[in-house]
């Protein structure tokens, strides 16, 4: 049996380990959360088992003190495909690992770009990272209420939302939760002019007015409608500059642009293709 098992391993291990980041994701019919947690844990342990003692010692400050038995094969020797995108996906899906990385950064973390914001990540940000000034959200927020509370109490000065699947709840409530330190918002996501109206009305009701720049990347051809909303609903000096990255041709000398200028707002149109 041992001989058969060893022979089977010699055949299968090279196949599985030529691209382990492909197979670990699809190796179970269980819920994807369990697959991610268990397979990523096994993958880490297997790699650590192949390290020498000096390399393992380097991991001790990061609470990685695994001491598994010596593996039968040098698995990494069979590695043919190394996908940074897959590894990034693994890290992003592993909330514990991501939260640990954030905690280790602590007060030195100034610029955070993240795909997915979970409750665990928000807790780590709130407790350990008070100095973040630029926050870029690439995909989604899993715990909307926790994130908005964090945002309101943060010292973020530049908020970038670059997501095609962002929750409309987050967008509709955004102005009510912006921190008093916020100076710039960049929106690269799908939203209708109605959202911009809600944002301007909510923001004008706040007791502070620190926003200097509102930048919108128009993904849906609403540039003209956005400007009409700004003309009608923005208060005087609501912000200094509105930048619209647009695929629509707009006359910068039009009455619409001039009327917005009379409110103390500079309009910058940037054509994108």
Residue share in β-strands: 15-25%
Q: Number of DSSP strands?
A: 7
Class based on secondary structure composition and strand pairing: alpha/beta
The fold-level CATH name of the largest domain is: Rossmann fold
Order of helices and strands: HHHHHHEHEHEHHEHEHEHE
Organism: Acaulospora morrowiae
Protein name: 17781_t:CDS:1
Describe what this molecule looks like in 3D.
The chain is α/β, with parallel strands linked by helices and about 270 residues long. The chain is built from 13 helices and seven strands. Strand 1 (about 110-115), helix 7 and strand 2 (about 135-140) form a beta-alpha-beta unit. The N and C termini lie far apart (about 65 Å).
Question: What labels describe this entry?
Answer:
single chain, about 270 residues, alpha/beta, Rossmann fold, 2 domains, seven-stranded parallel β-sheet
Task: Give a concise summary.
With 273 residues, the chain is an alpha/beta fold.
Secondary structure: elements and pairs:
Blueprint: H1 2-17, H2 20-23, H3 32-49, H4 53-59, H5 84-93, H6 95-105, E1 111-117, H7 119-128, E2 134-141, H8 144-153, E3 158-162, H9 168-172, H10 174-177, E4 184-188, H11 193-204, E5 213-217, H12 223-233, E6 241-246, H13 255-261, E7 266-271
